[in-house]
Heat-inducible transcription repressor HrcA (Atelocyanobacterium thalassa), 362 residues
Amino acid sequence: MTVPFLLNQRYQKILRAAVQHYIATAEPVGSNTLVREYNLSISSATIRNTLGKLEKAGFLYQPHTSAGRIPSDFGYRIYVDKLMVPDYKYTKRIIRTLNGQLNQKFYDSNETFLQKVAQILTNLSGYIALITLPQMFPNKLYHLQLIQVSSKQIVFVVVTNDYKTKSILVDIPSVLINDNKEWLDEKLQIFSNFLNSHLKGRSIFDIPNSTWATIDQDFIDYSDFLKGILKQLRNNLQLSISTQIIIHGISEILRQPEFSKLKQVKMLIHLLEEEQDKLQSLILDVPKNKLLNKQVNIRIGNENPLKSMHLYSLVYSTYCQHDIPVGSIGIIGPTRMLYENTIPLVESTANYLSKIFSLKLS
């Protein structure tokens, strides 16, 4: 998409106001409304002209010719990434609510505890809360093997003590690039022997605690590569395991004006009842570069790979046990979501759950 202008301060101000108005009212916005309700210090004619340019650029669109404009998925994305500031003052209320209403000692299982967490999320947001049950009992490593599969890639094969196999494809690092295939095969076998001797029989929870003090001089140049593939192993093993998903808040979200039509209601119910496996995969699908840094991930409308999610936004994050992802937490709402509150809500709750489940192994 070609934007015919840069989003200077004036365009940002008008786009921000248009998005905020639609989020608050679910009503298309026109220039007169923006002049009347927002202190923009810009004339109605200038606002009207700017709204037209924003529409041509794809940030807004008109549901019909006589209506005002509403944000597109692209407009929401720019708003979330560039124009919005999460309300982190809201974080204090979230933590106070979680601490006040939850005490894990009073719950007989993780499921009942997380059911209560999901209920709190729905009450605070007005949207649907999703939480996967934690994978608390990781498998022991039985065998690890590095195998060259092409001139640029290696497959890392892992067998756990229950004889399940996991394969991870990784790029060959620059320090191992060599035209001599036999030389590389020999190196990979040495690395495989090294990893097996140090990690066989260990839980993947132990991997981050490895000091690597035993790496001798022959392995110094490859330590980053070895630690990198082990990090991928840890994340893949934890988040690839199928787990139950807790869903709460269907009745709450049906009060939103987007669901006044029966078709939207049927699509939502089908998604939550018939496509739970796909939904679970979606909230477990965290970009690798975001997996361990507490960031919240946001998929808006058509950014969701599931067609049945194109009317919604998904805000989600992982929660951890000693920095190892063991589950995910997410909120589904209309694209007209109050992102300023939803983002800190998901982040704060994920951090809260991480502390709770890390204490289990302390």
